[in-house]
Amino acid sequence: MAAGNGLVETYRGGVAAWECDAFGHLNIAFYVERFGDAAHALLARHAPGRSWRTVSLYTRYPKELRAGDAIVIGSAIIGVEEAVLRLGHRAGDGAGDEVSTSAEHVLALRAPDGAEWAGLRADLAQAAIARQDEAFAPLDSPPGPGPIAAVRDRVKAREVDETGHLSLFGFVDRFSTSCLLTLNAIGITGAYMRAASRGYATFETRLDLDPVPPSVGAGVEIRSGVLEVGNSSLKLLHEMRGVQSGARLARFYQAGVHFDLAARRSVPLPQDVRDRAASLRVAPRS
Q1: Assuming Cys at both sites, which of 1, 79, 91, 232 could form a disulfide with 86, CB separation 3.0 to 4.6 Å?
Q2: Is the separation of the CB atoms in 71 and 12 below 8 Å?
């Protein structure tokens, strides 16, 4: 699956072994990086010479990708709104119609001129196609950060994009690490995962970025918490803030399952882990 049904092929590549995480499948940061590349390719076609920033990137992962798998992405404009552009991405192996990953990507023009955006908006609307995947339902997430101190570090030069700010990969790589620290806090430790052959498989993420991303040298920290505990599922919320400013930089919702690494399927959470996870829920809205 790639092009067709109005989609334009925007990326073609594969999964390298070094891109896979401790659970044996492609790390979510590399999915997001590829969708960023796909968006760049599509916008270079429809709006060359313009600079865009990601507002949000929501992704579903119906099929895990492992080392050696091919990735072909088809993309299209699926909405042109008052201030943002909405793209749809679908990834597969290029050999059939199966979708391994799909995403809804919202972008805004950097420093837009009103007249320029009005004209560009009309042109982009002409290229839009109907949405091909189910819309993401609104998420009523708590207003504040979670109780778990997950990540604290600073932005490195190797992590920034062409604007000099933290890249999509840099954001999600940290949120992926935050997931590991959150699992550790609820009792799914490295020792437990190795002994029981268990892991965590993500099936949905939602990245929301604030307008001004951090640049090289900026300190960042992430606090995490549990939104919901199911029989085998865990829904997490991670929030990144600037260490010096205290300003929120991004939020990341992550839904996944407790995973049997040998059988490659979900399995129930141990009761003690469920109890610990319930005690570390993010504070609800008042």
Answers
A1: 79
A2: yes
- Pairwise pLDDT comparison (95 vs 104), residue with the higher score: 104
Tokens of residue 161, six digits: 């994009």
Contacts of 251 (CB under 8 A, 6+ apart): 141, 207, 208, 237, 238, 239, 240
Q: Which part of the chain is CATH 3.10.129.10? A: 1-136, 138-286
**pLDDT digit string (tens) for 165-192?**
999 999 999 999 999 999 999 999 999 9
The confidence band for 94, taking pLDDT boundaries of 50, 70 and 90, is confident
* Helix and strand element counts for the chain (H, E): 5, 11
pLDDT value for 4:
63
Angstrom distance (rounded) from CA 96 to CA 119: 38
Which pLDDT value is given to residue 143?
85
Does 269 have pLDDT greater than 80? yes
Question: What dotted CATH number matches 138-286?
Answer: 3.10.129.10
pTM: 0.95
Q: Which two tokens stand for residue 14?
A: 């594969």
CB of 105 closer than 8 Å to CB of 35: yes
Please give the CATH architecture assigned to the domain spanning 1-136.
Answer: Roll (3.10)
Contact, 252 vs 215, CB < 8 A? no
CA 159, CA 213: separation in Å to the nearest integer? 12
Residue 179 corresponds to which tokens in the numbers above? 């997931």
CB contact at 8 A, 92 and 12: no
- Structural Rg of the chain based on CA atoms: 19
Angle (CA) 153-154-156 rounded to 5° is 130
